[in-house]
Structure formats: structure tokens, C-alpha cells
Design goal:
The protein has about 200 residues and is of the alpha/beta class. It has two domains: about 1-70, TusA-like domain (Translation Initiation Factor IF3); about 90-195, 3-Layer(aba) Sandwich (Hypothetical Protein Ychn, Chain: A). Helices cover about 35% and strands about 20% of the residues.
Length: about 200
């Protein structure tokens, strides 16, 4: 059984590491130490969606959790009768934060969102940065690095040229390419569905 000390790690890192161990690497079970009730709840939901057994022991604000695959269960697969999307999803990022959160929360969440895109099964076909969202691929080092990794996986990164020019950032773009409204409108209309954080 693989043992993992995940204390102090922010969402989504604990789930990413457990998923990597059990789904990607094929570990039959993991023993996880955490110190956050939110992480505990997220791991319980993850285990439930995968059909894994979930056991926990809590003491003084820390949890020892064992997540174990059922050796007799059939592999978890997507329903075969689910309608196929014509195209993969497209992400439309219109601001440098996730939602309209105040303070640092919106920045923390948008970075976590882009990091998590690297670990979800359905990768976006394109990421579109428009309006003040174009500041992310110019200045946010973490988002820039995640976008570079997504780009290496085949995701196209497009930033609105009009927006970059209007905000004075045309020479600051660090990842992806400058696009125009035709590129952006076409990508939105062709998308299997549009995701806006």
C-alpha cells in the first residue's frame, strides 16, 4: 500500500496525487495523511465516483485515510450511450480571476483551475483569453507554465489582439498566439461546449 503525506497541500493537489497513484499508476490502495476537512470531503467524493472503498480515522485535526480499489469491480468507464460531443470543450477566460472573488481568492482559484486542467480527463481544445483575461498569459507565471504544458498536449492558446493592444500588452505575451475576433468567434461557435471560469 502506497503511503502519502499530503498535509498542507491545497486543492486540487491531494486529489491529483491520489488519482495519479490509483488511476494512472494502478496502485490497488493508498494510505493518505491530511489535515483539512475540505480535502477529506474531496477525497471521499473522488473515491465514491471511482467506486473505491474509503476508510478514515480522525484525531486532533488530522485524518488517516485509506482508499482501496475493489479487486472484483469492473473498471470505471464512461457510458457508451452518452452522446458524443462534436468538438472538445473550449475555455473562455475573460478576467484574471476565477469568478468575481475579492482579494487573493480569485487569483488562487484561477491558478488552481489551470493546474487542474492538466489532470482532468477531458482536455480543452482551445483556451481563449479576452478582455482583462489576457493579462494571465502575459504576467501570471503559474498560469503561463500550466498553459505551456497544455499547449504541449495539443491545446491551442489564443489571446485577443485587440485586448492586448488596448491594454498595452501586445509585447508581453508569454504563451500561445495573438488571435483576432474571427479566431475567437469561430472557436466559440465550434466548441462542444464553452467553459468560463
Amino acid at each position: 500500500m502506497k503511503k502519502m503525506d499530503l498535509k498542507g497541500l491545497a486543492c486540487p493537489e491531494p486529489i491529483v496525487r491520489v488519482k495519479k497513484a490509483m488511476v494512472d499508476e494502478g496502485e490497488a490502495a493508498v494510505s493518505v495523511t491530511i489535515d483539512s476537512r475540505v480535502t477529506r470531503d474531496n477525497l471521499a467524493k473522488f473515491a465514491a465516483t471511482k467506486g473505491f472503498h474509503f476508510q478514515e480515522t480522525e484525531k486532533d485535526g488530522e485524518w488517516e485515510i485509506v482508499i482501496e480499489a475493489d479487486p472484483n469491480a469492473a473498471p470505471v468507464t464512461e457510458p457508451t450511450d452518452a452522446p458524443a460531443l462534436k468538438q472538445p470543450p473550449v475555455v473562455l477566460c475573460t478576467r484574471p480571476t476565477f469568478g468575481a472573488a475579492t482579494g487573493d481568492l480569485g487569483t488562487i482559484l484561477i491558478r488552481a483551475f489551470f493546474k487542474t486542467l492538466l489532470n482532468v480527463d477531458a482536455k480543452p481544445a482551445k483556451i481563449l483569453f479576452v478582455n482583462e483575461g489576457v493579462t494571465l498569459p502575459c504576467f501570471d507565471a503559474q498560469v503561463i507554465e500550466y498553459c505551456r504544458e497544455l499547449e504541449a498536449l495539443g491545446c491551442e492558446i489564443i489571446s485577443c489582439g485587440t485586448c492586448l493592444d488596448y491594454l498595452g500588452h501586445m509585447n508581453d505575451l508569454k504563451v500561445g498566439r495573438v488571435g483576432n475576433m474571427y479566431d475567437i468567434a469561430s472557436a466559440m461557435m465550434d466548441a462542444g461546449h464553452l467553459v468560463e471560469p
